[in-house]
Amino acid sequence: MGNSALKAHLETAQKTGVFQLTGKGLTEFPEELQKLTSNLRTIDLSNNKIELLPPLIGKFSFLKSLVLNNNKLTALPEELCRLKKLETLHLNGNLLRQLPAAFGQLSALKTLNLSGNQLRTVPTQLCGLRHLDVVDLSKNQIQNVPDSVGELQAIELNLNQNQISQISVQISHCPRLKVLRLEENCLELSMLPQSILSDSQISLLAVEGNLFEIKKLRELEGYDKYMERFTATKKKFA
């Protein structure tokens, strides 16, 4: 892509607060964006070949949405965690194995998409995020869900298509969790904490494609309580 094309994009971005440059084969984050650190509210660089985010990402102090789906990111810089206004972070289809230690400082974050990466566990940093609504960790390599998950504030947690065989009973203590997706994992019925059914806020539990038949779930103690929540929620949105 020529300089003139980039210049045109930058001029538009200066007026709109949105910089979008997708599917252009970019191998690095455009340094020229430095000039717009106080203008930009949205950056979308999806479907490129970016391997690294430079530390300067931490200077976009008004950024609300950062979209980097389908790139080649293997790690995120600590500086990313300075974005105190960031509400939406889309990182689907990268090569991320972990999140920066200070990730819990993204205090405004509401939506986090990390589908199709290489995470091995549910990152504990997510538990510090008080405004988190939706977390998508589907299509990773997660094998178990640790005790720390009980602190998670999310309303929806998507763990479909991982390799999960163990789930901490603490998941039933998540204060706001309404939707839990666990489809296509490696769960035996005995490994699914019954408290999810009998004693949680969860009103939609999706567990198709595991190592048990769905009808067996209906025989578990607490299933009636779960169905009451499920039906009440359905009525509310009908």
From TrEMBL:
Gene Ontology cellular-component annotations: cytoplasm
Keyword flag Cell membrane: no
A Pfam family recorded for this sequence: LRR_8
Keywords tagged on the record: Leucine-rich repeat, Repeat
PROSITE patterns assigned: LRR (PS51450)
InterPro entries: Leu-rich_rpt, Leu-rich_rpt_typical-subtyp, LRR_dom_sf, LRR_domain-containing
Protein name in UniProt: Leucine-rich repeat-containing protein 57
